[in-house]
Amino acid sequence: MLFHYLYIQVDFCGRHRYTKRYAITGLNIVKLLTDYPSGRFQPTMKKNIPNRLRNPHSPPDKPREEVVTPPCPYFRDCGGCQLQDRTYRESLRVKEARLTALLGRFGKIEPIISMKTPWSYRNKCHSTFAYDRRFGIRNGLYAEYSHRVIPIDRCLIQDERADNIIATIASMMKSFKMTAYNEQTGQGFLRHVLIKIGFASNEIMVVLVVTSNIFPGKNHFVKALRKKHPEIKTIIQNINGEDTTMVLGKREIVLFGKGWIEDTLCNMKFQISAKSFFQINPVQTEKLYEKAMEMARLTGREIVLDAYSGIGTIGLVASGRAKTVIGVELNGDAVRNAQRSARLNNVTNATFHKGDAGKFMESMAKNGQKLDVVFMDPPRSGSTQTFIHSIGKIKPRRVVYISCGPESLARDLDWLRQENYDVKKIQPVDMFPWTEHVETCVELRRRDI
Known about the structure:
Layout: E1 4-13, E2 16-25, E3 28-31, E4 44-47, H1 51-54, H2 75-78, H3 88-103, E5 124-132, E6 136-142, E7 149-151, H4 160-172, E8 190-197, E9 204-210, H5 218-228, E10 232-239, E11 251-256, E12 261-265, E13 268-272, H6 282-296, E14 303-307, H7 313-319, E15 324-329, H8 332-344, E16 350-354, H9 357-366, E17 373-376, H10 385-394, E18 398-403, H11 406-418, E19 421-429, E20 439-446
Parallel strand pairs: 9-10, 14-15, 14-17, 15-16, 17-18
Antiparallel strand pairs: 1-2, 2-3, 3-4, 5-6, 5-8, 6-7, 8-9, 10-11, 12-13, 18-20, 19-20
Helix pairs in contact: 9-10
Keywords: Methyltransferase, S-adenosyl-L-methionine, Transferase
Pfam families: tRNA_U5-meth_tr
GO molecular function: rRNA (uridine-C5-)-methyltransferase activity
């Protein structure tokens, strides 16, 4: 099949447009899913291309006064910050327009909560190391829609301390005879470096993702790295020798420190491990959780479920305003972090369980257990019909849905409507400035109360 690769500007709302990459062949449009190794993709076919997609050469989608020169020199190649070629104000308008198009049928979209200083906000930073036959060892980020590594010295949305540590590790590789991973041959040692930073605690975790548990000279390497960066609190060797696009492997060896760091969010301390999820923008997360607590309308008498609970951030923040909090999370490392964080904060009315959120809710419904409020913060792909159907069986008065995927959120809100829930408020938060992504907090209330 012959594909002609084009950028298609898909018009969502008025002058605001949202860019995706498609291939066109005959009268079919194919969306390329590029999360497959070595550039392979699985196409999904869409027939009957709308007329507005037949001519992809659309005019610029930004008002002239909102166009700026992207401050990042890697903007064109990287593709991570899709909205950096416009003012911050215009980037917020684009996100609001996208949400209005996707979620407007459920109710009014509140003005997006912006970030005062939308730079260096990421507390989780990642750099890929690769061997290139022409250039040798390279480290940086993948170019958009590819596995080509773009050498990046400074990412403007990452914490600068992380960039400095990554640069130091790259400079040490030759003297410690460390090789970079070659994706084509499967040879080489260092695949990725992952940095996690506690913005409040200033604790830093370094995760070295390597292909083998054998690490010659690891003690000297750790000593040399810590000499240059004494702010590092723990260093972890993560072993990932699989042919996979997943960054982290299953096995870890702690080379220095406790194997986790701590940080403070909403006046509570949290333990963060290499594999557990913690919101990447703590400044905006506090604003998001404040809105979530407002929507929950807790009085201290409620039984609350924190679904997809991660390391327990939402549940522990809610614990001081509710009678009982139950957390459920599939990631075992995150559950252990949540349990330790509960002890760290002297929280006795919150328990955290390892398991699938849908199955957990089904079990609760079968046992006749009751809930007053459900917080749900699923991955970008959204929740499941099983989980949402279980909400309909247990009948909590309120559901607070936190989403980083507007498309899956729209689908799930339709399912929740079928379970007798109405949307009362939709509040977007700019958790990911300069990118196309947006976090949305939705309050739902049961129709028959």
